[in-house]
Automatic annotation (TrEMBL), chain B:
<comment type="similarity">
    <text>Belongs to the ABC transporter superfamily.</text>
</comment>
<dbReference type="GO" id="GO:0005524">
    <property type="term" value="F:ATP binding"/>
</dbReference>
<comment type="function">
    <text>Part of the ABC transporter FtsEX involved in cellular division. Important for assembly or stability of the septal ring.</text>
</comment>
<dbReference type="InterPro" id="IPR027417">
    <property type="entry name" value="P-loop_NTPase"/>
</dbReference>
<dbReference type="GO" id="GO:0005886">
    <property type="term" value="C:plasma membrane"/>
</dbReference>
<dbReference type="InterPro" id="IPR017871">
    <property type="entry name" value="ABC_transporter-like_CS"/>
</dbReference>
<dbReference type="InterPro" id="IPR015854">
    <property type="entry name" value="ABC_transpr_LolD-like"/>
</dbReference>
<dbReference type="GO" id="GO:0022857">
    <property type="term" value="F:transmembrane transporter activity"/>
</dbReference>
<keyword id="KW-0547">Nucleotide-binding</keyword>
<dbReference type="InterPro" id="IPR003439">
    <property type="entry name" value="ABC_transporter-like_ATP-bd"/>
</dbReference>
<keyword id="KW-0067">ATP-binding</keyword>
<protein>
    <recommendedName>
        <fullName>Cell division ATP-binding protein FtsE</fullName>
    </recommendedName>
</protein>
<dbReference type="GO" id="GO:0016887">
    <property type="term" value="F:ATP hydrolysis activity"/>
</dbReference>
<dbReference type="Pfam" id="PF00005">
    <property type="entry name" value="ABC_tran"/>
</dbReference>
<feature type="domain" description="ABC transporter">
    <location>
        <begin position="2"/>
        <end position="224"/>
    </location>
</feature>
<dbReference type="InterPro" id="IPR003593">
    <property type="entry name" value="AAA+_ATPase"/>
</dbReference>
Amino acid sequence: MARQRYHDGLALRQALPGQFLPFLVAAMAFLAALALAGGLAAHGLSQRWTHGAGAVTTVQVPRPDDAASADSTATPASSRIAAVQAVLSATPAVAASHRLGEDELRALLAPWIEQTGDPALPLPAVIELRTVAGQALPATLMASLQARAPGVMMEHDSVWSDRLAALAGSLQACALLAVLVVTTVAVCVVMAATRAGLLTRRQAIALIHSLGATDSYISGRFATRVGLLALGGGLAGSVLALPMLGVLSWLAAPFGTTGDAPAMDWRDPQAWAAMLPHALLWMLVALPPVAGLAGWTTTQLTVRAWLRRLP
Amino acid sequence: MFRLHDVSYTYADSRTGGAALSHVSAEVAQGEFRWLLGPSGAGKSSLLSILSLEVQATSGMVEILGMPVMHARRAALARLRRRIGAVRQDFRLLPDMNVFDNVALPLRLQHRAEAEIRHEVHAIMKWVGLENRLDALPPQLSGGEQQRVAIARAVIYRPDLLVADEPTNALDERQAARLITMFHRLAEMGTTIVVATHNDAIVRRYPAQAIELAHGHMVRDYNG
């Protein structure tokens, strides 16, 4: 006879069966993992587009060592390049500027220089600019530069990077919304399952309540059961998400690096793990305990609210 | 012990309309045995429900085992319930737990050691004459047997206050006499006991102080 099976009459294995809830939590954890991965990928692209090569503005100054034009509003500079650099350093939207050295410039222009066959060709000075995040260069900047160094040219790529960064921001917001929706649905599922369990065992709950069981004892028993089921479901969801995220990361690798997707040994688990960003791996590790904690907390609140109907 | 002063109780379900208890006052000292008398619908079960903290009085003052319960915290009420035993007319046995586990339930909620629980359950079940039915489920028992299991569960932890609603209903005369004798022994050991009954024969056979109710009002509090 199963004498030790139900010590307090709550019979939680009957009230909260072990099949339904973990399956749903696993599905929710799987979706949350995908959404988190999408959010992280969008964040990575945003970072690349904001801080990468695409965000650089280049300023070309022909004949850099010639004398600069006179300008009554600025301090006279000895050369055109010095005048341009003075204007740029006085512009608040410029976060950093870097004049390419001789070697950098020749490396950059090597294809064209080799075609002309004249290594002594006079080269312009090139300055790379990075703007302060969220700020655009002032519309009057070009006019100021032209006033000090006529013929100066500016190539402005940050318009595209800003647009792409905005797109990445939208994708991150969508991912966050998806995580919120999945979390809300999971909480509702846990609440519904808990309430069904409470109704199934209401006779036993009323009895042990009348025998002196505290609210914290009863809610703790339910919460422990649900927390463990949610933990298991979260673990299953994370494990199921791992190979899919590995494949997606492998497919998306060309967007993060140059060239084709790297070769991968599909039978090596470490190769799978290495394919995923560390932040995503940590999120997958954190997903089961977070699911368990959310299940535990939701159940505690649901049971305590339900017990309020008892005296 | 308990003290009731000007206690009224109205059912939460407004369709029933009237008050179950109106302005009832009574005081019973520690270790006293008290009959609770009155016809059906007099309010006996409502009074027992108030004493066993199953419902809260609508108004008045209720003090049980030295604690005013009207504004007590839930955790304090839970602790107080562990000192109160109750035998209800519907027995309230859990149908999916065997007799042993039903009777052991209060001790398990008090986290007693399993060896002690086994000893206590066997002793009380021997006393109620059901030591051979420990593995039976409540639906497999007769009404009298279920009533004895409910009584065993109510007294196994030696409560300070014991309330019983028609506990002799399903018992034969010999078993009823044994039960009332046991209640008197428990009272001698310090348990306050209130037994609701409309069995005049047993009240005459075991005279004691009584509270009599009619239509929710206290008719008298007298020595039987």
